[in-house]
Design goal:
The structure is a homodimer. The first copy, chain A, has one domain. Helices cover 65% and strands 1% of the residues of chain A. Chain A has a two-stranded antiparallel ribbon. The radius of gyration of chain A is 22 Å and the shape is globular. Chains A and B meet through helix 4, helix 15, helix 17, helix 18 and helix 19 of A and helix 4, helix 15, helix 17, helix 18 and helix 19 of B. Bound molecules: potassium ion (K) (2 copies). Chains A, B: Keywords: Cell inner membrane, Cell membrane, Ion transport, Membrane, Potassium, Potassium transport, Transmembrane, Transmembrane helix, Transport.
Chain lengths: 509, 509
C-alpha cells in the first residue's frame, strides 16, 4: 500500500499543462485584436493560466506519477483547464445584455462554466441562445471550437500515451487489438508516442479544414468561409460537436454534410489504426474486430433510421436526403460528435429513439470518442455468449479471444463493471434531473430528462425535445446545469479517476 | 461434456405439471357452473391439459434432471402452462362482440396468449378493455387471478427448491444470506422444502384474503366482497397485480390500500426469512443486508415521490393521501406487483419517472418478485465500491463479503453479467417497440415505449401514458404484443434458461 498520495506531483504536472494553455488562448486573442473586438477576456485568461500554472508547477520537481497520482492529475487537469477556459465566457458576460446566456449573475457564471466544460470534455452541449450566436465575437466562437479540439487531443494522449493503463479494461485490449506494443517497440519513448498522435491529429484537422475550404473555393459551399472551415475541422476531428452556426452543420449544403462525415468517423477510429493506414498498411483495420463492429453499427443503425424516415408519411424527402440525414445523424451520435444535419427532434419517435440508442455505443477505443465505446461492447457481447455456454457446461474453461489474443478474466469483469457503472450513473443522473425539475417547477418530460442525461454524461451534446440540436440547455435549472458540469467532467475522464478521489482509501496510505 | 440433452426427461416432468394443472382449472369451472355461465372454456382446457400432460409424461421414466434438462424443463413448463392457460381466454373469444379483447381473429388469439402469459409470469399487463371488465364472467376473471397465483408458486419452487442453483448468482448468495443450508440440514428432502414453501404461500394468501374480507365484514370496505377478497389475496401475495377491477386497488377504500401493502411487501420478501419469522426468529431479517437494503429502497423512494406530489401545485391531496399514494405505488412497483392506487400516469414527470426507476430494483431473491432483485443490486454496488479500491491498489486482494460470508469472484462476474444482460435486452426490446410502432404507424412516444418495455420484461404490469394502470396494452400492434409475450416469458424465468436453448452447444453433446 505504501505512502500517502503525492498530490504535489499531480498538481505540478497540471500546472505545466495550465502554463502551456496560454498558447492556444493566444489564438482567439489575435483574432479579437484583428476583428477590433475587446481582447480583455483573453488577456485575463492568459494571465490567470500562466500565474496559476507556474504556481502549481513549483509545488514539486518530481514528475514520476504512480497510479493514484496519475488519476489525480487527470482529474485536476480537466478541472483546471475547464475553469480557466470559462474565464473568457464569464468576462463577456460583464455588462452583457439580458439576452445573453452569459452574465455576472450566478446562472450566468454557471453558464460560462457549462460552456467551457462542455467544450473541453468534447460534449458540445451549449447554453448559448440565438442572441449569443448572432452577437458574440468571432474570437469567443473560435475559443469554443478550440477548447474542444484541445479536449480531443488531451483524451488521445491520456488514452494512448502515458496513462493508458488507467482506462478500465480498454487500454489493455486496445493494445492487444492493434498490437500497440509493437508500435511502442518501434518508438519506445513516451515523447515519440505523443508526437505521433499529435502529428496525426494535426494532420487530420488540416485535411478537414482544407477539404471544407476547398468546397468553398470551388463555389459548392458559399457560407463555408475560412473561419467556418477551420471551426468545423477543429470539432469534427475531435468528435466534439460545437459549431459557430446555431443550426450546426444543417446550415451548410448537402455536399458539406457528406464531407464532414468521414472526419467524424476517422476522429472516432483508433489512432493507432490510423497510424497503420498512413503507413500504407490497410490490413490492420480490416482485421480489427472492433473496427468491423464499429462500421457494422454505423451501417445498420443508419439503414434502420433511413427506412423509418422513408416510410414515415409525415417526413418528406428525396432518397438522397433520407439516406444523408439517416447516416449523418447516426455517425454524429455514434462517434459522439453531436452535430446535426437537421432537427431530428421533429422526426417520428422510432427514428428519434434509435438516435438515443446510438448514443450509448461510442466509437473505437484509442480515439477522441466518448460514451461507452465499441471495444467494451464487443467484449461484453462476447462474454455474454460465453456465459451462456458455461451456464450449461459449468466445468468448461473457455478463454475469451479478441483477434489472436486471450482477454484475461479480470479485464472482462472490469469491463462489465465499467459498462454497468456507466449505465447506473446515467440512471441516477436522470433521477436527479427529473426530481430537480419538479423542485424548480421546470417543465421537463421524462424522455427529455433521459435524453439530456445520456447526452451530457456520455459527452454527446444535443438531446431531444426542448434540448434538441437546434436548441440549448439554458432551460434547465441552475442546480441541474451545475450537476451536469460535474457529470460531463466525470464522463469524459471515464468515471474512475473522479470516483476514486471520493474514497478514503485514496487519501490514506 | 458428455451426452446429448435428455429432452424426454424434461418433457416428461413438464407433462406431470400440466396434468396437475387440471386441479386449479377446476376452480373457475365450478364458479362458472355456480354462476350459470358456460363451463365449456374450462372443460376444454382441462381435457387439453390432461391429454397433453399424460402424453408428455409418458415420454420418459427418468426424473433425474441434469443442468441442461432442468433449464429445458423450466422453459417448457412456463411455455406449456401459459399455452394451456390461454385456452379459456381464446374460447370466450368465440362469437364475442367486437368490443371484446378476445376474438377468433389473429389479434384476438394473440390477446388470449398475452393475457395468459402475463398471468403466469405474474406480470399483470392486460389487454382487457373496459368492456371486458364489465362483461366477462367471474369465472374468467378468477382464472386470471388464479394463474398469477400459480405463477408465483412456480417461481418460488424454482427459486428455492430443486433448481435454485440455476438462477444466476442469486441462489448461491441467497443461501449464504439466509443460511438456507441450515434449513436444508433440518429438512433435507426436496419434498419437505416444497411443502414448507407451499405452506407459507397458502398461509399468507389465506391471511390476506381473511384480512381483506374482514374489512368488508366490518363495513369498512363495502365492495370488497368474498370474490374480490380472494382475487386480490391471490395476486398480492404473488406480487402479480391482476385485479378484477378495471381501476385496480384504486377502486377500493384507503384502508384496503393500506391493508394490501404488507402483503405485497411480504410476497417480495425471501420466503426463507418468512419461515424464520414464523418460527419466532426476528433476528434473521434484521441481520439480512438484503432485507435492510430492500426496506431502505422502499422508504426512500416513497418519501421522495410523496415530497414531489406534496409540492406539485397541480396535484391536490391531504397528507394521508399523498403518503399513501407515494408508498402504495412504490411498494407496488418495487415488489413488481403492479397494482395502482391511483392513475400515476397523471402525476408530474418527476414522480412518474421515479416509479419507472423503481421498476428496475425488485424485491428480495427467493420470493415471488420479478425484476433484477435487491440481492443482485446489493452485490453490484458492493463490487463497484471494491473496484474503486482495487483501481488504486491493484495488488490488493479484497474479498467481497455479504453478511459473514465471502462472495466468490465468479458469482460477482455472473451477477454483473446478469444485470447488464437484463438492461441490454430491455434496451433491445425498446428498439423493437419503437421501430415496430413506426412500421405499423402506431402513435407511441419514446417514453411510452421505454416504460412498457421495462414493465413487460421486468414483469411489472402497468406502464405510463396510454399504457398506464387504468389502460391496457391493446394499443400495441399484433407483432409487438407477440414479442412482448416472448419477453415476459424470458424475463420471468431469468433469461438464461431461454437463451441457452438458442445456443448450438445446448443441443450438441
Ligand atoms: K460531442
Ligand atoms: K407484476
Amino acid at each position: 500500500m505504501g505512502i500517502r498520495v503525492d498530490w504535489r506531483s499531480s498538481c505540478s504536472l497540471t500546472g505545466t499543462v495550465l502554463k502551456w494553455l496560454a498558447v492556444p488562448l493566444a489564438v482567439p486573442l489575435v483574432l479579437a485584436v484583428f476583428d477590433g473586438d475587446g481582447p480583455l477576456a483573453f488577456v485575463a485568461a492568459i494571465v490567470a493560466t500562466v500565474v496559476v500554472g507556474i504556481a502549481l508547477e513549483r509545488l514539486s520537481d518530481d514528475r514520476d506519477l504512480g497510479q493514484r497520482e496519475a488519476f489525480l492529475m487527470v482529474a485536476l487537469t480537466w478541472f483546471g483547464v475547464a475553469a480557466i477556459g470559462s474565464i473568457p465566457f464569464a468576462l463577456v458576460g460583464l455588462g452583457a445584455p439580458s439576452a445573453s446566456a452569459f452574465s455576472t449573475s450566478v446562472g450566468g457564471l454557471v453558464n460560462a462554466a457549462f460552456e467551457s466544460t462542455s467544450g473541453l470534455t468534447t460534449t458540445g452541449a451549449t447554453v448559448m441562445s440565438g442572441w449569443d450566436f448572432e452577437n458574440q465575437s468571432r474570437a469567443i466562437l473560435l475559443w469554443r471550437q478550440l477548447i474542444q479540439w484541445l479536449g480531443g487531443l488531451g483524451i488521445l494522449i491520456v488514452a494512448i500515451g502515458l496513462l493508458s493503463n488507467l482506462m478500465v479494461g480498454g487500454a489493455q485490449l486496445m493494445e492487444t487489438e492493434t498490437q500497440t506494443r509493437n508500435v511502442r517497440k518501434l518508438r519506445p519513448h513516451l515523447d515519440e508516442t505523443a508526437r505521433l498522435i499529435w502529428g496525426l491529429y494535426v494532420g487530420l484537422t488540416a485535411l478537414a479544414a482544407g477539404t471544407f475550404y476547398a468546397l468553398h473555393l470551388l463555389g459548392a459551399a458559399p457560407n463555408m468561409d475560412l473561419f467556418n472551415a477551420v471551426s468545423h475541422a477543429l470539432t469534427s476531428v475531435a468528435t466534439a460537436g460545437f459549431s459557430p452556426e446555431p443550426e450546426s452543420v444543417g446550415a451548410f449544403e448537402p455536399i458539406v454534410q457528406w464531407a464532414v462525415m468521414p472526419f467524424m468517423i476517422l476522429g472516432a477510429t483508433n489512432f493507432v489504426l490510423l497510424y497503420y493506414i498512413t503507413q500504407g498498411d490497410i490490413r490492420q483495420p480490416l482485421q480489427s474486430e472492433e473496427f468491423r463492429f464499429y462500421v457494422g453499427v454505423l451501417v445498420s443503425l443508419s439503414a434502420l433510421i433511413a427506412a423509418i424516415l422513408w416510410i414515415d408519411p409525415a417526413t418528406d424527402g428525396t432518397l438522397e436526403q433520407t439516406v444523408r440525414h439517416g447516416l449523418f445523424n447516426v455517425v454524429s451520435l455514434v462517434t459522439t460528435t453531436g452535430y446535426a444535419s437537421t432537427d431530428f427532434g421533429l422526426w417520428p419517435a422510432g427514428a428519434t429513439y434509435l438516435l438515443f440508442f446510438s448514443m450509448f455505443i461510442g466509437g473505437m477505443a484509442g480515439s477522441t470518442t466518448c460514451s461507452i465505446k465499441s471495444l467494451r461492447w464487443l467484449v461484453t457481447l462476447k462474454a455474454f455468449r460465453r456465459n451462456l455456454f458455461t451456464s450449461i457446461h459449468p466445468e468448461a474453461v473457455r478463454p475469451l479471444r479478441l483477434g489472436n489474443t486471450v482477454v484475461d478474466e479480470e479485464t472482462i469483469r472490469d469491463i462489465y463493471a465499467y459498462v454497468l457503472l456507466a449505465i447506473v450513473i446515467f440512471f441516477l443522473l436522470t433521477v436527479f434531473v427529473v426530481v430537480d425539475a419538479a423542485r424548480a417547477s421546470t417543465a421537463v418530460t421524462e424522455f427529455e430528462a433521459i435524453g439530456a442525461s445520456a447526452s451530457i454524461f456520455l459527452n454527446i451534446g444535443p438531446a431531444f425535445g426542448q434540448f434538441g440540436p437546434m436548441d440549448n440547455y439554458a432551460g434547465f435549472s441552475t442546480a441541474t446545469r451545475t450537476v451536469m458540469i460535474v457529470m460531463m467532467w466525470i464522463g469524459r475522464i471515464e468515471i474512475i479517476p473522479v470516483l476514486v478521489l471520493l474514497t478514503p482509501a485514496f487519501w490514506k496510505s
